Amino acid sequence: MTEAVTDLVGKHLRDRLGAEPQRASVTFLGVEPIDVLRFVLGDEAPDELVYVTSGCARHPMADPTDLHADPVKGPRAELVVRMRAGSPLPGLHKRLATLAAAPAVEGLILDADALVDLGEPLWDGATCTAVLLSADELGEVELPDPMDPVRLLRAVPITANEAAWVRLKGADALRDVWREADIDVTEPNRASATPG
Hints:
Residues 31-190 form the Suppressor of fused-like domain. By secondary structure, this protein is of the alpha+beta class. Helix content is 27%, strand content 31%.
């Protein structure tokens, strides 16, 4: 059944994005492999890169200390990173797989407005070391009853300063600053927001 979940997620993504992905698989000790799918959007000149994890949603997210966690029902999620094409992002798939493995490894529950700090650059040379989660326009993937749907959560790369701002003022306050400063969060080399 767990492979059926990843198959359903893959079909949903191909239908919604209208493209076949490149796939990179990352393995962690004691955890099933996490795949990172890379979709190139834009016919003539690639315009947007969409990275989506596949494997995080195999099992519901639960507190690892809960000895009676339901193996079927419970929240499921995969992460989506949208970046403007043009810059190489070496190592992004590995860091993204690490974030997607966190529910299985650390019992982390991935949800909208959550701040997940990696503590290292999200890709080699990046100024962003964390992600801020929100619902992605790709929506949810329905699964057979009684399983909960898979939520596709957009993971926006953020800097350490922006992460501190989220801890202090909340996720919406940072999004307001991005809007006011006209910051394009899909630009890999963007400046950090400087909240006033």
